[in-house]
Amino acid sequence: MDPIWWLPLAICTALFTAFKDLLGKRSVAKKDPWAVASAMHLIAFLVLLPLLPFMQRPAIGSDFWWALLGSGSINVAAMILYLKALQAADLSLTTPMLTTTPLFLLVTSPIIVGETPSAMGLIGVVLIFLGAYLLNISQRHLGFWAPFKALWDHKGPRYMLLVAFMFSISSNLDKVGILNSSPLFWLFCLFAFISAGTLTLALYHGHSPREVLVDEPLSLSLQGVLFSAAALSQFFAIQLTMVPYVIAIKRTSALIAVGLGIWLLKESGGRERITGALVMFGGFLFITFAGQSG
User: Fold this and answer.
1) Which Gene3D superfamilies match (predicted)?
2) Which of 18, 34, 76, 262 could form a disulfide with 253 if both were Cys (CB 3.0 to 4.6 A apart)?
């Protein structure tokens, strides 16, 4: 495949993710997140299943299984929290929190691998905090720290912030898993784990994917297809260029989701949320590419 295709593939990843979040927001407004998560991931896994005959089994390294257990478990918990965040708050208020993932990497990297953030990375940190502040700037009249307090007091943004932290850990485990197998094999195994995990937990909590698939077959099917399509387009894109470039484009899904929430779901605070999301995305870019400039 021509390397020039990485950009369209990365853009597709962002679009698929944003529209998946829009549909997910509508689903959890009416259905339990456990049922929605299990149905969406089951369909996503079934979409990937036809690729199995064409997949060569790689040599499995010694660290593969613990990486799969770790990343899979974290992703199962993160996916549930992800949907609970969408259920608890506006799409335009929760999705910008995902741009904080590299912020957590700046905190964990000095501890784990002894890396310290560059000046460019520190500028990114400031921009992310400024953007988060702007998301609720209308609360400024209640006190200087009121915009931050409003975010923290709201379950939706707080849950999504935790999701971003969990993704910052699972992404490192994903790298271990890929190095001990192959990218496509890892993707397939991870989806199988997440599908089985969300289904098991949904049944444990008294919910089944059937309860949402019967009522919303088209919406849940689309969510599953979009989820797997986003993963595949991201997978192919990172084969053609550097991973940070693909992730930077992918995270524009937060900006797209903000726009969709304001436009289609009629969410309030459009101007401040768009401004805040743009500034946070700018911070994301600074942190992401600070590591590349070194």
Assistant:
1) 1.10.3730.20
2) 18
State whether residue 170 is helix, strand or coil: helix
165 in Cβ contact with 69 (< 8 Å): no
Q: Which amino acid is at 146?
A: A
* 168 token code pair: 């910052």
Instruction: Output the CA–CA distances (angstroms, integers) from residue 216 to 22, 28, 48, in the order listed.
Output: 14, 11, 21
Tokens of 261: 């929430």
Coil, strand or helix: which one is 97?
helix
- DSSP secondary structure of 202-236: HHHTT--THHHHHH-HHHHHHHHHHHHHHHHHHHH
Task: Work out the angle at residue 160's Cα, subtended by the Cα atoms of residues 239 and 92, and round it to the nearest 5 degrees.
Answer: 90
* Amino acid letter, 276: G
CA distance 155 to 160: 9
Taking the C-alpha atoms of residue 291 and residue 117, their distance in angstroms, rounded to an integer, is 8
Q: What is the pLDDT of residue 141?
A: 80
CA–CA dist 172, 105 (Å, integer): 10
Q: Residue 243 carries which side chain, given as an amino acid letter?
A: V
| DSSP at 98 | G
Phi/psi of residue 239, nearest 5 degrees: -75, -15
Residue 65 CB-half CA count within 13 A: 1
Burial class (CB in 10 A: 0-12, 13-18, 19+), 112: exposed
What average pLDDT values come out for the chain (294 residues) when binned by 10 residues? Answer: 81 95 94 93 94 88 95 96 95 91 71 64 86 86 82 89 90 86 92 95 88 86 96 87 81 92 92 92 84 52
Exposed (0-12), middle (13-18) or buried (19+): which is 62, by Cβ within 10 Å? Answer: exposed
CA angle (113, 164, 5) in 5-degree steps? 85
